[in-house]
Specification:
single chain; 318 residues; alpha+beta; OB fold (Dihydrolipoamide Acetyltransferase, E2P); 3 domains; 5-stranded mixed beta barrel; 5-stranded mixed barrel; 18 strands; globular
Length: 318
């Protein structure tokens, strides 16, 4: 995707920004730490160039796949299927007013959030149907709350169902989030961590509405949901655990299906489950939040996957 060598990129940035090569390399190394396991050194150099407002090369359009989206890229061309289109919403920022449209775009390598700011394009995209193929041009990529996004401004272009272009089986999944080490976690940022379960506590259960999963309150011999009235409550599990990745450890909290996914089973005796889970490697997506009731930070999990050693090695090599 990025054709120039790392060394030539650094020299070019240093010359344009009037910095020494060592200063640029220091910025690149800091960016690698910030986005660990997300970008190569060349990719980090491009992000640094963008932050320094250095125009790299001739701004030649970069034709990429979803998996190749790197924060800081500009002049991006990307083709995918429209997986979800949300209603445009109005916004006010200072003296500026306008509309913004969000949608999910996917190809055979993954899915990504597309954010459209230009009202001309918003009107044009209002005509698309489910599974239409979209080719977007002159887009730029950035991070938002830990997720990679592709944005279209007034220089952007969209071609609906371009001739002679197809998108094979689409990988539908969660938007791609940044992977970080535990020591790098900051509050309220959505990230992925790869870690080992070192301690797990016995599940607790609360009564929840079967429709909205919110906690219900006793109402005589029945239960009442604020939104759905009297309901037949279901027991929802909560599991607390500690995970460690070698740089630090953090308490994680899993609800509902994520709790069962972490434990593997809620039916076995807990002592047996505890032995099986200890030492298990997992990939967790979620965010660090402060629990004000006990004044501690906790990683609230929104997705649990068993770590695939082969896949992790391939990702590190790439």
């Amino acid at each position: 995707m990025i054709q120039q060598s790392y060394e030539s990129l650094v020299v070019r940035i240093a010359e344009a920004a009037k910095l020494s090569v060592s200063e640029v390399e220091s910025r690149v190394n800091a960016k690698l730490v910030e986005l660990q396991d997300l970008v190569s050194k060349a990719g980090a150099a491009h992000i640094v160039a963008n932050e320094l407002k250095v125009q790299m090369f001739d701004n030649t359009p970069q034709v990429i796949k979803v998996r190749d989206v790197v924060p800081g890229l500009s002049a991006v061309t990307l083709t995918g299927r429209g997986l979800a289109l949300f209603e445009p919403r109005s916004f006010t920022s200072g003296s500026r007013q306008g509309k913004v449209l969000n949608m999910i775009l996917g190809d055979e390598t993954g899915s990504v959030k597309l954010v459209v700011w230009d009202e001309r394009l918003i009107e044009e995209l209002g005509k698309i149907k489910e599974d239409d193929i979209l080719k977007i041009k002159n887009a730029y990529a950035k991070l938002n709350n830990g997720f990679k996004e592709v944005h279209l401004g007034n220089r952007g272009q969209v071609v609906i169902n371009p001739e002679n272009e197809t998108v094979s089986a689409v990988v539908v999944g969660m938007p791609v989030s940044v992977r970080k080490k535990i020591k790098e976690l900051v509050e309220n940022e959505v990230v992925e961590v790869v870690a080992t379960v070192v301690q797990v506590f016995e599940p607790r259960f609360y009564s929840a509405c079967p429709v909205c999963n919110k906690k219900v309150l006793p109402a005589g011999s029945e239960f009442s949901c604020q939104e759905h009235g009297v309901v037949v409550a279901k027991n929802v599990p909560i599991v607390n655990a500690f995970v460690d990745d070698g740089t630090g450890n953090v308490r994680v909290v899993c609800f509902r299906e994520h709790a069962e996914r972490l434990l593997g089973s809620l039916e076995k005796p807990f002592a047996e489950v505890q032995r099986e889970v200890a030492g298990k490697q997992v990939v967790l997506r979620g965010k660090l939040v402060r629990n004000s009731m006990v004044d501690r930070v906790e990683f609230i999990v929104s997705r649990v996957e068993d770590a695939d050693p082969g896949r992790l090695i391939a990702e590190m090599e790439s």
